[in-house]
Amino acid sequence: MRFTLRSALFATLPALALALASTAWGQAAAPSAGANQQPAVNPGTPAPDCRIHVNYDRNAELVGYAALPDGKAPCIPFTATYQLVPGNYAGADFYAEEFTDAKIRERWATCRENPACADPARKGAQGFTAYEPRRTGSVQPEGRIDPDGAVDLRAVRRPGFFARAPFSEPIAAAEPRTTTVEFTVPRDSYERLHLKLTDSIHLRGWYMEGSGIDDGAGGKRRALVILNNGGGSELTATDDPAHDGISRDAQGRYVVDASDNGAGEQPGMRHWRGFLQALNAAGFDVLVTDRRGNGISGGRNGFNTAEQARDMFRELEQLETGEGLRLLTPAGELLEGRAAAGRLLAGQKAREIPVVIGGYSRGSYATAWAMQQNFVADCDRDQPDAACKPPRGWTNIRGAILYGPNSGGLGWRPAGHDMIEAALRVERNTTYYPDSEVYAGIAKWPGLLIIKGTWDYVEGLEGSLTAWRRAPEPKEIAVFRGPHVLNTQNADNMRFAGERMVAFATAAVLGRKQVEGAHAPADLRALVLSSPDHWELTTAPSN
Q: What does UniProt give as the signal peptide span (predicted)?
């Protein structure tokens, strides 16, 4: 089967948000373009001046900005703001102050006493500890492994696998530079406390060595980009370009194709692997593993993004020391422990090599938590009353790439998601969504790239722009005309996204304050209209 379990889960969340208006503010979720509904953006942000229907994955009429005042150019849609600042709000910053860990726990103490509030919150939280069936090897047996067993690393698919028809993916060019990696990490809090599992698990993926980026002075600088897959995404799952995983239902809506038609295992993954290839071809080392609980990595729970953030630091340390590390080199050598120590990282130490961290969707949450832990405070929100530790303080981490993120934290999500997150932390010992402390902490990050589709549903685009404004230079926010998911994205937009990742990572590593080719939008309208003139494949302009 395809990714129908994950799709069903995410399709449920908007209904939960509507049923679970915030206990403190009582706002409706997901404002749209109706004349009698609440405004689409906060005061001070340009009001939308047009509306347009988009197909996948919203199947709805959205607000937008007209490219030309005469209306002859298309209306460019965007996701409206879910929760507006209350008119009577007396604080300094609603989105930074009202969605901290302490505030959502305080509201949960009230919510849990009311079944109308608590029941949908608990249902949502339950979904974020659900097992996600693996898809790698479900269509083509080659590459299928037991993620929780002893794995022969030669059985893991490598970039060269994707050279064959019908894939013909550019990632295949990285085969001579790619080492298959396996790291050892502890179970997360949910698995330890609720499933009573105490053994270690293994994270598996690829380390692609680069040739170094041009340092502007005739030399090369070796640097590493760590990327984190999107929710439920699997690094080595197949993606048949002839099948986008989308079908039309009886009402004509574009929906996930739930049929088991023997095509690709995960539609859209070729675009994600394209980002890896773009960065590696530009000279960067690239590390990517399947997250715990997904794909070829072990574990049962794939949703604790704060723990996944800690995994990145563990991986860097193991690449240096070899402890808990296994490698399969391009030459076919199997190395373990001390024999694997220092073979990668361009001969540098874990705290020396310049690092940019990035991720898509759920992977962007892990990225945000890693930045919070490194630059602001290392807090364990899975445990009741756990004391925060000082930030890790790794000075070689140079910036973050957030693709399809919730960069603004819980306050910019639909009303009620704060209670889902609170229930998840309190009753299931799992941290998933970044809270407003992470959002506020962006000011301490060394650099930030946000890139997303204009009708990405995760947060209103106004929230992403506000998060970008908090960041120091180098920074960029770039948008394209498309949704959150990868399946039906325009290939030109995906090339654009990869180019922006390369440009930002280069600036961050070299200590440049400006990102080549970046534009600083004056406001939300300018941001939306800056999107390239390429549309998601199921949606076309109607005017």
A: 1-26
C-beta neighbour count of 261 within 10 angstroms: 13
Query: What is the residue-level pLDDT of the chain in tens, covering all 543 positions?
Result: 343 334 434 444 444 444 444 445 444 344 444 445 789 999 999 999 999 999 999 999 999 999 887 656 789 999 999 999 999 999 999 999 999 999 999 999 999 999 999 999 999 999 999 999 999 999 999 999 999 999 999 999 999 999 999 999 999 999 999 999 999 999 999 999 999 999 999 999 999 999 999 999 999 999 999 999 998 799 999 999 999 999 999 999 999 887 656 688 999 999 999 999 999 999 999 999 999 999 999 999 999 999 999 999 999 999 999 999 999 999 999 999 999 999 999 999 999 999 999 999 999 999 999 999 999 999 999 988 778 999 999 999 999 999 999 999 999 999 999 999 999 999 999 999 999 999 999 999 999 999 999 999 999 999 999 999 999 999 999 999 999 999 999 999 999 999 999 999 999 999 999 999 999 999 999 999 999 999 999 997 753
- For residue 165, CA distances in Å to 112, 274, 514 come to 53, 16, 41
Residues 179/325, Cβ–Cβ less than 8 Å: no
As given in the structure block, the two tokens for residue 520 are 């600083």
Distance, CA of 234 to CA of 472 (rounded, Å): 32
Q: Write out the DSSP string of 197-248.
A: --S-EEEEEEEE----EE-SSS-EE--EEEEE--TT--TT----TT--SEEE
pTM value is 0.94
- 505 neighbors 399 (Cβ within 8 angstroms): yes
Rounded alpha-carbon distances, angstroms, from residue 475 to 384, 401, 402, 512: 35, 10, 11, 10
* Cα maximum dimension of the chain: 68
